[in-house]
């Protein structure tokens, strides 16, 4: 994904985001298991340090860390799914409608009106002057 978006096909970008979403699902399940395990089995945990009082700080830190990391992966999952859907839609478009290909996208020309209004202000009073200018 280090190349410009127009250098990749939309299908490969969609496949990448589906892979990223699958990875996020795996990590979310691991973090959920870690949070559940921490919540249920924290009473049996011990540390090799002599002071066991630090466990009352360590266990909540691990619990909230796993919940926070799982939440961040959930946000990443939703972004990956959205980007995967958008790139999939782009890959299903005909080549002349692909917004990533500027040289293939047909853009209609805007017709110029036969007249336009020029607005200016005078230096003394700040009054606005409007005139109609005809274009050839």
TrEMBL record:
Residues 115-136 have a biased composition (Polar residues). The chain crosses the membrane at residues 14-37, 57-83. Keywords: Membrane, Transmembrane, Transmembrane helix. Residues 112-136 are annotated as: Disordered. This is Uncharacterized protein.
């Amino acid at each position: 994904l280090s190349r410009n978006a127009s250098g990749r096909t939309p299908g490969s970008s969609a496949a990448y985001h589906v892979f990223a979403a699958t990875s996020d699902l795996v990590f979310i399940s691991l973090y959920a298991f870690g949070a559940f395990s921490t919540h249920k089995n924290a009473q049996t945990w011990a540390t090799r340090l002599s002071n066991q009082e630090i466990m009352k700080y360590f266990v909540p830190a691990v619990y909230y860390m796993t919940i926070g990391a799982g939440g961040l992966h959930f946000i990443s999952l939703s972004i990956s799914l959205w980007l995967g859907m958008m790139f999939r839609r782009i890959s299903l478009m005909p080549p002349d409608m692909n917004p990533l290909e500027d040289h293939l996208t047909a853009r209609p020309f805007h017709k110029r009106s036969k007249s336009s209004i020029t607005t200016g202000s005078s230096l003394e009073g700040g009054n606005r002057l409007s005139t109609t200018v005809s274009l050839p």
